[in-house]
Design brief:
The chain has helices spanning 2-30, 67-97; strands at 32-37, 42-47, 52-57. Helix 1 runs antiparallel to helix 2 (67-97). It is α+β, with helices and mostly antiparallel strands. The chain is built from 2 helices and 3 strands. The mean pLDDT is 89. It has one domain (2-97): 2-Layer Sandwich (Ybab, Chain: A). GO terms for molecular function: DNA binding. Belongs to the YbaB/EbfC family. Residues 1-26 are annotated as: Disordered. It is found in: Cytoplasm, Nucleoid.
Length: 104
């Protein structure tokens, strides 16, 4: 019966880790991440849930003759913001999954 105490202790540790993981994920979800392109002429903000919440365009970058450039800058800024979310998620959540080889 001695093994039951170890199992209960392990379960408590797992529950604590699960709670900490949920809190860390909630904190990430509430953060905003910004990506920029064209020297800051285009800025895109996304949440940790990967939702675009803001796009800011400098008037100088809006050229009706070159819509493709503006589209490219928006894509670049959005991808940069999403990359920041991915990096911070991996850094924050990775400490919980080290050595477990689990996706998050």
């Amino acid at each position: 019966m001695r093994g039951m105490g170890n199992m209960q202790g392990m379960m408590k540790k797992m529950q604590k880790m699960q709670k900490e993981m949920m809190e860390a994920q909630e904190a990430l979800n509430e953060k905003q991440f910004e990506g920029a392109a064209g020297g800051g002429m285009v800025k895109v903000s996304v949440t940790g849930q990967r939702e675009v919440v803001d796009v800011v365009l400098n008037e100088a970058v809006v050229d009706p003759e070159d819509i493709e450039m503006l589209q490219d800058l928006i894509i670049i800024a959005t991808n940069e913001a999403l990359k920041k979310v991915e990096d911070e998620t991996a850094s924050t959540m990775g400490k919980f999954t080290q050595g477990m080889n689990l996706p998050f």
